[in-house]
Design goal:
- Four copies of one chain form a homotetramer.
- Chain A is α+β, with helices and mostly antiparallel strands and 352 residues long.
- Helix content of chain A is 27%, strand content 21%.
- The first copy, chain A, is built from eight helices and 17 strands.
- The first copy, chain A, has a five-stranded antiparallel sheet, covered by helices on one side. Chain A has a five-stranded antiparallel sheet with strand order 10-9-11-15-12.
- Chains C and D meet through strand 1, helix 2, helix 6, strand 12 and helix 7 of C and strand 1, helix 2, helix 6, strand 12 and helix 7 of D.
Chain lengths: 352, 352, 352, 352
């Protein structure tokens, strides 16, 4: 019912924003994989808000593994893990008990379940994504052994974009507080964030992801194309509104003869308009895609809401919120990509 | 393994381009639904190439139902249907037996399976989508009874775009050979198609889809968001390279305060930047999304290919191909959308 | 919705007893498997009624493959196949339109769907199992390449049982019209069948199955134990009422010290009380299980039925029926076992 | 990969016998169900060993819910729960690190994963079933609201059987330490247990289960028959070796005319040979089935094992074990039955 991802390498997550804990269960991770806990902690740190441009809740994000690992290696059995929730103030949300905030999941959860956890967004909170990062980092560790790496960075915040998205220097972005691969653009992004912060507003953005070293042959034909799996994974991240792969929307304006990725004699291609996937199946080139995120709707500005009877109320925000959540979404994009590739990698083993 | 779509309303398709037949099996369609065969035939006709700007193979697309229907109504048991392949010339493809065409699925299928049907693209051919249209039209008939309708049109061909995608007149597009909702734009599209045809090249484009009358509460939280399901469905259509919902990529440049869809007192919203889905769950407003398609890569121009040893060959196209396949992709977009909504509609019945 | 079996090697079947056709779609069968059509026809012949002790409908059972096979080998894409229904007389069932026969699926299908195909049992007819045999034989051909074979025979008809079920001679049973592995028992079975035929009644029985050459390590822990998968497969065969593996029900009366299968030094075991599965996972020994089938309820005797209002009617049987359907159920047991093992074999490839 | 059960009401379990904790995640439980914690604790108590005839490890089995419940009621989101492991002595198992015990999952897990948790059986331990009981009791609470109840009792221990399994008095069995529905039989069972205990051996047995109040129409045709789902659920319980429904194996010796369950005018049936399921779908009568369990193989007797090189060793048992685990398996049978019925109940809502 929506809380499990994958067919072979499967992640089930659980937890509400202000419940006891969030966590997950990974099933199908092969036995004998040595888990690098500090790499997981590093990825979790990247998901945590920066003091400068985010004012979100700060959780220690301490992972406790309950099963599936012995002597540091996976057993092949389910890997369960839990992160206790600590730094939350449910009282901040008491006044929202019967309130639907615009463009949040308040009204839709109520419509779906007839009942909802109003505290901090409940299950719809991005707090849940912490479990994806734990599982995704384990998937990345599995993929590393296969020579596959997954990098991502921020290519747009508000209306500020990096000019070149073809030759991304991830060493730059990995060391940038905004995960921006270009120093000049980063400066402009910092400026617009500062301005937006002073206005009490928020910003969206775009994240680009590159999967390198991926063998040809991953992805299933027809409905479960690798591009379709990636699209689903990305559009399942909170606030995602758009996905494109290779040339994406720009390909609509190309002609067939310019779009064609002509082969080299080693079956690599001279161009990569396709973004590493042809007919839904990886061709061994870099898999390149981008995801657009809308700005967080809760800002420090008062906001017009309705209550359960439809009566309007102006609500002053009390909870914490991000000025721009896009930089800290980078590890989530990487994690979901890793889950997709690990799952398809294992699935492909059944066919050859 | 990639040939089944949906959890409750499930479609499995089969068939190669130049095999005996294509078809599908629908499982989970509720009993007692009266099937309108002529509506199916009408949708299939929309998927067939136009003489003017497409030179594709022309199949009669006669559907034969083998099971699951008695006295014109569904039995609740699997609905199997077959469309025999007739108008194909496998000889046209004999010279491609050991050839990988650029940006086709030739190389990737070979990498995946070690063996492939080289005739007309085999399973990777868009011929397969005929089965999606049959099943999707049945899903649309089921949804109609629930008051839900699904419309789609072409908003871009090459670099020609309709100016306004917010107020689409589907009566215009339904009667347009290009499925374009605006007469002026259609004229420009016709001109660019004519020019491209004369150059022996091809064009991509964008399709917009609107789902109206959809009840609030559809879609599952976290991984199976309704937006994620739609993204997967759309990116599984041949040549799809991008998906966006609501404001999509444009939302990245908005601020949180302008992005918010403020409620009316009846829980409808004053704006619909979200595109009818919030927190992954439908909110009762129109669900609006767009899909970008790259141009068909096979054109009448000679094309540089490689053989199984990596040696380059210039190949003259012999098979048929589309100048612009986007108009005939409209019923496929509608069909996949219908499968997603029918599936989520039935799934939601388990939770209330 | 119940018409698909398996996770990797997946079969979806369709078709009503008196509809146009029955058939299926296999997804996930690896590419490059050469299909032996005559072996499929041979298995189908074993499923057909014998003139001597069965009076069932006789279909030619001619399989037509529609996809997934080229030049005699599988492509890795869905393998669809169809068997047209020919020898049926729907008129024989006209008088049953509003009648519920006891211990048939008439009432339960009506309760489930509110609507049913009353002709020959519709979807609940054992006619559907023909598709399982086609798919199961393909699975057997895949398993043969892995050194795995699946044999089955009849060990009980009515109250006549073979004395020894530990050392079955399948060469005898394969040549027996009753699929009985013991000539003396066969004779007694023939006698009881003749007597039952003269009384216009019918008989049930038990089938034993042995899977040899199965590698250790198949089956998943906890819910998807190999024994659980086999149980589900067998209990999904029409008229199955019991399943036991290894010592089965007799193991309840053993002590722990006598039940233990002590190892030889090559990890084979001195006894095989477990039936080749320990902790839900194959141990490399023969997998041995039995399935009990109730007698066919439609006989040539008049039968007390009710109509849709609950009023009783005595109905004279007009359709054809089996005196004892157990011998022709043998290939169905083998087929379902093959589907289970092929699926688990492929699944295990993801974990090592 | 074997650790998830169900399609709509889904349980995923995790945990090794001597790991940090065992637990589970329930997805798909409808929102608004009030959870009776003390009923869960009561069922867990029934799964705990009795001092008299079991010498097993004694865990407090304190459940902690981490998510999915607010103010005592389900939210519709995943319900995660954890039971910390406390009373285990991994040192007792140190000598078994490189030892395969007969008829345990030691060798098969090693064969499957190439690596295993040797402590207390690891994942293959029946400790895992505690999570099934928590989830199953929640399923039972959901079913209670639909008027469906699930009872089970012990009808055989060793070679001692209750004479009448048709008219079970569950009030008697619920108050019996052996869960036996008949006082005389209980006495004989007690005697055989005492004798077996003095011999340092162990006993198997049979559990009967009755599901009452189940609406007609549950279960899916063909592969996912309700009987097949129940068989899979039961055969997935540790040490299960046989399953039968209604007349079960005895039906093989009946004739068709005696087997038929003739209807009353209210569509109930005069007999219930079918055990409440016809054509795989519930008919509204009591669903009756039995499950056979082999004796626990670890006893206090020395046991012949092999090490990883195949060399034999006589091992003295040090860990704790049950003389007869069948009585405490009763709540596990009920729990698995509840998961099956809840899942099928919700699934059926999609079809009408």
């Amino acid at each position: 019912m929506g809380n499990t991802f994958g067919r072979i390498f499967r992640l089930t997550t659980f937890g509400e924003s202000h419940g006891a804990a969030v966590g997950g269960v990974i099933d199908g991770c092969p036995a004998g994989l040595h888990i690098n806990i500090s790499a997981i902690e590093q990825m979790l740190a990247q998901r945590r808000p920066s003091k400068d441009f985010e004012t979100s809740r700060s959780e220690p994000d301490k992972v406790r593994f309950l099963s599936g690992i012995m002597d540091g290696a996976t057993l092949g059995t389910p890997i369960a893990f839990v992160l206790e929730n600590q730094d939350y103030n449910s009282e901040d949300y008491e006044h929202l008990k019967d309130i639907f905030r615009p463009s949040h999941a308040d009204y839709t959860y109520q419509a779906k379940y007839g009942f909802r956890d109003h505290r901090g967004g409940g299950r719809s909170s991005a707090r849940e994504t912490v479990a994806r990062v734990v599982a995704g980092t384990i998937a990345m560790q599995f993929l590393e052994k296969q020579g596959i790496s997954i990098d991502a960075c921020v290519t747009q915040i508000g209306n500020i974009k990096t000019l070149d998205t073809q030759t991304i220097d991830f060493q730059v972005s990995d060391n940038s507080p905004l995960r921006c691969p270009d120093k000049d653009t980063e400066e402009q992004m910092m400026a617009i964030i500062a301005k937006t912060k002073s206005q009490g507003d928020s910003l969206g953005g775009v994240i680009a992801c590159v999967i390198s070293g991926c063998v040809a042959g991953l992805g299933e034909p027809v409905f479960d194309k690798l591009s379709a799996d990636l699209a689903k994974a990305m559009m399942g991240i909170p606030s995602a509104k758009g996905f494109e792969i290779g040339e994406g929307f720009a390909s609509a304006a190309m002609t067939g003869s310019t779009y064609a990725d002509v082969f080299n004699n080693d079956f690599s291609t001279k161009t990569n308009h396709s973004g590493g996937i042809q007919g839904g199946i990886s061709n061994g080139m870099d898999i390149r895609f981008s995801v657009a995120f809308h700005p967080v709707v809760t800002t420090s500005k008062p906001i017009e809401c309705v209550d359960g009877k439809g009566v309007s109320h102006i609500i002053e925000a009390k909870g914490r919120h991000d000025i721009c959540h896009v930089p800290r979404t980078v590890p989530i994009v990487q994690s979901m990509a890793a889950l997709v590739i690990a799952d398809n990698f294992l699935l492909q083993k059944t066919q050859n």
